[in-house]
Amino acid sequence: MQELQEQIGQSAGQIYNYLNNNGESSFSKMKKELDLKGNFADLGLGWLAREDKVEISKKGTTVNVRLK
Hints:
Elements: H1 2-22, E1 25-26, H2 27-34, H3 40-50, E2 54-59, E3 62-67
Antiparallel strand pairs: 1-3, 2-3
Helix pairs in contact: 1-3
């Protein structure tokens, strides 16, 4: 279980750094560019949302993410 939590935390870190360097992005583009395996992009984003570090918005079918 600890290893899984570490992987999720690392994914959250990658997402945070990506948004810090690139600004607002669509979730699908970010997920593709980071090449996070399985559900780790979703889990990492959830981690950041729970810590209130990101703002998530939806325009049509596109989900956009940016740092707060």
